[in-house]
Amino acid sequence: MTDDSTRTDGQDPGPDQQSDSTTEAARRAPRERIMADARRVRDDAKRVGRETGRNLGQFDYRRPRGPVKADLEDTHGHYPHDTHPILVPGIAIDEQRRKYSLDKIIFAIAGGLTVAFVIWGITSPSSVATVAQTAYDWATLNVGWLFNLVAIIILVSLLILAFSSYGKIPLGKDGEKAEFSTFSWVAMLFAAGIGIGVLFFGPSEPLTYFISPPPLTNDPETTEALHGAMAQTYFHWGFHAWAMYALVGGAIAYAAYRRGRSLLLSSIFQTLFGKRQTEGFAGKLVDIFAIVATLFGTAAALGIAAMQIGTGVSIVADAGPMTNNALVIIILVLTLGFIISAVSGVSKGIRYLSSINIVLTVGIVALVLFLGPTLYLLNLLPSALMEYLGSMFDMMGRSLSWGAETQEFQSLWTVYYWAWWISWSPFVGTFIARISRGRSIRQFILGTIFIPSTLLFVAYGIMGGTSIWMYRSGASGFTDSMEAPEVFFTLIDNLPYVEWLPFVVIIVLSIFFITSADSASVVMGMLTSRGDQEPKKWVVVFWGLVMSGIAVVMLLLGDASALEGLQQLVIVTAVPFAFVMLFIIVAWFKELRTDPRALRRQYALNAVDNAVVAGADAYGDDFALQVVPTEPGDGANGGIDSEHEDYTDWYQRTDENGEPVGFDYETGEWADGWTPDDDSANSEESSSTEESTDTEATAASTTDADSGTASATESDPDPANDSEAAVGSDRREDPS
Question: What predicted TM-score, i.e. pTM, was given to this entire model?
Answer without folding.
Answer: 0.80
